[in-house]
């Protein structure tokens, strides 16, 4: 019973003390002290016991109804977790129910909810895809890592996901310092809704404190960094953002099962939930695998995610993320052209003009990704091209690009093919124009 307890032994003890005082400190014949020796007749005992039972019944009937709600398992778990946490990090190791071993789910042949399944069912019952409480760690803290961290913090603040803490590597110090200045909370803060962000120089400490681990180091560092760490095969999930590391290498270096390693690619815009994450999980043989469900739910709350079945498909999709540079280059060229052709346009205004025009065009295309749209997503780009006014300036610009460059396909395909060949280690990514 929560909020109300009644202890007969305590009441008996008080009566026992009063009786002892009245009888000069001896044990009165009528004493019913719960842990004392009974020296009374059976009839007296039955009568006194009946009186106490009646008193207990009256108290129970008169107590507030809310006092008798059973203690939920979550409340018990929370109390246990708080008690464990008070003993310090050296004596406790939290494991998120979202990251329980997939072996448990695999043994569940009759569909009885395991802790993982039950948690997901509960979260999804109201149309939500919240992950269970997670502690997330970043080994390496560059632009992408800090962007993901910001995106996670934003998701936690708007309640679209549940996070306990984020621990980031000190390197690079400028990025980690900026995160701390923006988001870290005092360890003594009593507001449990606030996410705790901390920085450490010890990568093993990140593993000891976190469930979900993001690897964001330089390609040449990835293997040695992983080999120097001790992963928990029943706890950790490893997500690599190192473009050159494949799933087999990640599994070998971390000594984790294939189902617990994944590769992911994203852009810095994920910090504001404007980007999209590309994902390839080691448990792709199971389309509803624990790791995939966790990551799809997590990054689905941060702008969107596209999950690929093979690393080859992931590599091909990575090429589109490499065309952001050419896009920015095009925008800069247009800005510079405007400055050369105008007298009164400032550089700030020219930059503002170009960025907003591109943003407007992207917005028109993005409308097809909304769940409430009437636009067909699969033909949206073709439809936008067809919407250009016949004989108008946009149509003329399209024709001119085709005449000068040989068409967009002739421009895009060799550039993207060359980037893909570099990603796969086949070439250095350059184009030989002599051929």
From TrEMBL:
Start-end of Polar residues biased regions: 88-119
GO biological process: L-proline biosynthetic process
Chain positions covered by the region annotation Disordered: 1-32, 70-129
InterPro entries for this protein: NAD(P)-bd_dom_sf (IPR036291), P5C_Rdtase_cat_N (IPR028939)
Bias type Basic residues, positions: 15-24
Compositional bias ranges of the Low complexity kind: 72-86, 120-129
Domain Pyrroline-5-carboxylate reductase catalytic N-terminal: 136-242
GO terms for MF: pyrroline-5-carboxylate reductase activity
Record's signal peptide: none
Pfam families: F420_oxidored (PF03807)
Family the UniProt entry places it in: Belongs to the pyrroline-5-carboxylate reductase family.
Protein name per its UniProtKB record: Pyrroline-5-carboxylate reductase catalytic N-terminal domain-containing protein
């Amino acid at each position: 019973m929560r909020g109300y307890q009644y202890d007969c032994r305590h009441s008996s003890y008080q009566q026992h003390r009063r009786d002892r005082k009245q009888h000069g400190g001896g044990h009165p014949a009528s004493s019913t002290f719960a842990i004392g020796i009974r020296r009374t007749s059976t009839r007296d005992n039955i009568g006194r016991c009946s009186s106490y039972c009646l008193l207990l019944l009256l108290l129970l009937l008169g107590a507030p109804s809310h006092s008798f709600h059973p203690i939920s398992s979550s409340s018990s778990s929370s109390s246990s977790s708080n008690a464990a946490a008070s003993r310090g990090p050296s004596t406790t190791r939290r494991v998120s129910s979202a990251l329980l071993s997939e072996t448990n789910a695999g043994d569940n042949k009759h569909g009885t909810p395991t802790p993982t399944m039950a948690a997901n069912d509960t979260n999804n019952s109201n149309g939500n895809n919240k992950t269970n409480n997670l502690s997330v760690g970043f080994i390496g803290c560059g632009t992408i890592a800090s962007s993901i961290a910001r995106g996670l913090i934003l998701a936690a603040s708007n309640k679209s996901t549940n996070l306990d803490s984020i621990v980031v590597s000190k390197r690079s110090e400028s990025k980690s310092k900026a995160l701390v200045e923006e988001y870290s909370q005092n360890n003594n803060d009593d507001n449990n809704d606030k996410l705790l962000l901390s920085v450490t120089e010890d990568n093993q400490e990140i593993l000891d404190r976190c469930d979900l681990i993001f690897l964001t180091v330089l390609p040449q560092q990835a293997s040695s960094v992983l080999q120097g760490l001790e992963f928990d095969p029943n706890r950790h999930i490893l997500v690599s953002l190192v473009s050159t590391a494949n799933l087999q290498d990640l599994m070998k270096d971390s000594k984790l099962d294939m189902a617990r390693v994944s590769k992911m690619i994203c852009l810095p815009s994920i910090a504001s939930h404007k980007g999209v994450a590309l994902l390839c999980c080691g448990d792709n043989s199971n389309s509803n695998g624990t790791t995939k469900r966790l990551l799809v739910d997590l990054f689905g709350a941060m702008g969107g995610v596209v999950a690929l079945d093979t690393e080859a498909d992931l590599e091909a999709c990575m090429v589109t993320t490499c065309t952001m540079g050419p896009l920015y280059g095009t925008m800069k060229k247009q800005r510079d052209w405007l400055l050369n052709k105008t007298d009164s346009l400032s550089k700030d205004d020219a930059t503002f003009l170009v960025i907003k025009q591109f943003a407007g065009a992207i917005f028109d295309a993005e409308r097809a990704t909304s769940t409430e749209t009437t636009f067909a997503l699969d033909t949206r780009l073709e439809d936008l091209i067809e919407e250009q006014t016949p004989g108008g300036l946009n149509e003329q610009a399209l024709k001119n690009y085709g005449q000068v460059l040989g068409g967009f396909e002739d421009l895009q395909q060799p550039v993207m093919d060359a980037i893909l060949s570099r990603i796969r280690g086949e070439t250095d990514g350059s184009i030989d124009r002599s051929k």
